[in-house]
Amino acid sequence: MKANDHHEDKALRRVLAEQEKEAAKIQLPEDFADRVMKRIQEEQHTADKRSIRIVRLRKIAASIAIALCVSGLAYAAWEYVAMSAKNRAVEVAENTDSIVTFKNVRLDEIVTRVGEKYHYGVKFSDEVLREWRFQISWDSTKSLSEFVELLNEFDGLSVTEMDDTLLVSPQLLKE
């Protein structure tokens, strides 16, 4: 063994001895590691409880939000149906022996009723026209031609007499 190796070995032993002295000064209780682990587990358990509570609160909030949305939609649907029924109230009033007033009545019902009086059939060139609603008064003592003229006064509507049929079609735009 060389002299340098001997000195290095001696220096290393001295450093190790000093470290042992320092370690001896710090006296940790025997159950120190167990207490640290227990404390870590308790903190983790508390954090888990908090996150579980937060998740529960979020679920409750989501349930309430869904309930409010559903009830709001149900109320809106109920209001829509009520308003639709109110707006679609069909009224046909016979004021005198000859005057008939149609209020918010579909065009196909009006034209069919008038056509029956004069023994005319009705034909629609566009099915959408059937759904149109009108408020109009009809004097059943007047001729069918006068009624047709009255209907033709409405924009977008053209009614013509062909043989024994009333032809209802959309009015072409005039340029």
Key phrases:
175 residues; three-stranded mixed sheet; alpha+beta; three-stranded antiparallel sheet; Phage tail protein beta-alpha-beta fold; rod-shaped
Describe this structure in words.
It is rod-shaped, with a radius of gyration of 47 Å. It has helices spanning 3-25, 32-87, 107-117, 144-152; strands spanning 91-94, 99-106, 121-124, 133-139, 157-162, 165-170. By secondary structure, it is of the alpha+beta class. The protein has 2 domains: 40-87; 91-170, Phage tail protein beta-alpha-beta fold. The termini are far apart. The longest helix is centred in the middle third of the chain and has 56 residues, at 32-87. Helix content is 57%, strand content 20%. The strands form 2 sheets. A 3-stranded antiparallel β-sheet has the order 1-2-4. It has a 3-stranded mixed β-sheet with strand order 3-6-5.
Order of helices and strands: HHEEHEEHEE
Low-confidence stretches are none
Distance between the termini: 120 Å
According to CATH, the fold-level topology of the largest domain is Phage tail protein beta-alpha-beta fold
Give average pLDDT, whole number.
Answer: 80
Describe this structure in a few short sentences.
The chain is of the alpha+beta class. The chain is built from four helices and six strands; from the N terminus they run H-H-E-E-H-E-E-H-E-E.
